[in-house]
């Protein structure tokens, strides 16, 4: 084997389809585009959702529902999560920053404390909102509630 008789492996180099170069090429005539129709024409570009002229799905299906632009979305934290966090970090005051540091709340989220679970220690809890049940449980355990 020398440089002058090197060849690529069989099947590794494919020749390009020379489309639209006459009938002798095998790809002349319709140039592999089939007969007639929008897809056979030059410059064809379909729109997103185009279904060949049939009424597209996004126009057949009716609009419904309502998006309230004034909706305030809270990240819900239950009492049992507060209890375990306070026990683990030995806290008497739980703030939104403590919840963020613990990874329970994403950055920039509003926090609402919900009443699922029990709380046994007196905690000073600071959050954006509280459910009635959670507020009652925290005050019954000797803690205080403050809205941020």
Task: Explain what the structure shows.
A three-stranded parallel beta sheet has the order 1-3-5. A three-stranded parallel beta sheet has the order 2-4-6. The longest helix is centred in the middle third of the chain and has 11 residues. The protein is elongated. It is α/β, with parallel strands linked by helices and 148 residues long. The chain is built from four helices and six strands; from the N terminus they run H-E-H-E-H-E-E-E-H-E.
Judging from the principal axes of the Cα atoms, what is the shape?
elongated
Q: Please describe the biggest sheet, giving its number of strands, its sense, and whether it closes into a barrel.
A: 3 strands, parallel
Count the helices. How many?
4
Radius of gyration: 34 Å
Sheet/helix structural class: alpha/beta
User: How much of the polypeptide forms β-strand, as a percent range?
Assistant: 5-15%
Helix content: 10-25%
Q: What is the mean pLDDT?
A: 93
From N to C, what is the helix and strand string?
HEHEHEEEHE
- Given as residue ranges, the uncertain stretches (5+ residues, pLDDT < 50) are none
Count of extended strands = 6
Q: CA-to-CA gap between the ends?
A: 81 Å
Strand order of the largest sheet: 1-3-5
Layout of strands and helices, then pairs:
Blueprint: H1 57-60, E1 74-78, H2 79-89, E2 93-94, H3 96-101, E3 110-114, E4 124-127, E5 129-130, H4 132-140, E6 144-147
Parallel strand pairs: 1-3, 2-4, 3-5, 4-6
What labels would you give this structure?
6 strands, 4 helices, single chain, 20% helix, alpha/beta, three-stranded parallel beta sheet
